[in-house]
Write a structure and sequence with these properties.
globular, seven-stranded mixed sheet, about 180 residues, 4 helices, about 30% helix, Glutaredoxin, alpha+beta, single chain
Length: about 180
C-alpha cells in the first residue's frame, strides 16, 4: 500500500510524443497528476481522459504536470489519444502489470470485446489517480476495482487551490497501531 508523505515507486514509461517519462526527473514545480487508465477498450476511460485533457492547462497554471498511462502498447495508446483529440495531455504506454501492482492498482482479466467492440487485453490494470509531489512523495491517491465512479478533475483543481493556499499536508500518513 502506498502511504501519503512517503516516496512512491519509481515510474518510467515511454510517451507518444514527449520521449521517456521518468517520475524522478519530472520538473513540475508543485507535482504531477498521474492518471492510470484501463486502455483503448474502455469507453469510460475515453470520456474520463477527455475531461482530463480539458483540465491540463488548469493544472499547469498551478505548477502541476499531468500524464495518462496504461499498459496498452504504442498503437493502442495513440488510438486513444486520437480518439479524445489530445493536444495537451501526455500519454504514456507500456506500463508493466508488475509496476501497476507496485502502485496498488487492481488487475483484471479479459472478458472479450467491450461495448464499443474493442478486445480487452488478456490482463490489464484498473484505474488509479495520483498526485505526487516534486520529491516523489504521495500527496493524493485513489484506486478502483471497476471503471465506474471516478474522482472529478474539477474537484481536484479546487482541492489543489485550497492545498496550495493553505500549505495543506497530505493526509492518511499514520501507520502506527490503532
Amino acid at each position: 500500500m502506498l502511504i501519503p508523505r512517503q516516496k512512491t515507486p519509481d515510474l518510467a514509461v515511454q510517451t507518444l510524443d514527449h520521449g521517456m517519462f521518468d517520475l524522478s526527473a519530472e520538473g513540475s514545480k508543485k507535482g504531477t497528476i498521474i492518471c492510470f487508465y484501463r486502455g483503448l477498450h474502455c469507453p469510460i476511460c475515453a470520456k474520463y481522459l477527455t475531461e482530463l485533457e480539458k483540465r491540463v492547462p488548469e493544472f499547469a497554471e498551478r505548477g502541476v504536470g499531468s500524464i495518462a498511462i496504461s499498459s496498452d502498447g504504442e498503437e493502442r495508446a495513440r488510438a486513444m489519444a486520437e480518439k479524445i483529440e489530445a493536444k495537451e495531455l501526455r500519454f504514456g504506454y507500456g506500463l508493466s502489470l508488475a509496476k501497476a501492482r507496485e502502485w496498488g492498482l487492481y488487475i483484471s482479466t479479459s472478458r472479450g470485446k467491450t461495448s464499443i467492440g474493442i478486445e480487452e487485453p488478456a490482463l490489464f490494470a484498473e484505474p488509479g489517480l495520483f498526485m505526487v509531489t516534486p520529491e516523489q512523495n504521495l500527496y493524493y491517491g485513489s484506486v478502483q476495482t471497476m471503471p465506474f465512479v471516478r474522482p472529478h478533475f474539477s474537484e481536484l483543481v479546487a482541492a489543489l487551490d485550497f492545498a496550495i493556499a493553505n500549505d495543506y499536508p497530505a493526509r492518511g500518513e499514520y501507520t502506527g497501531d490503532v
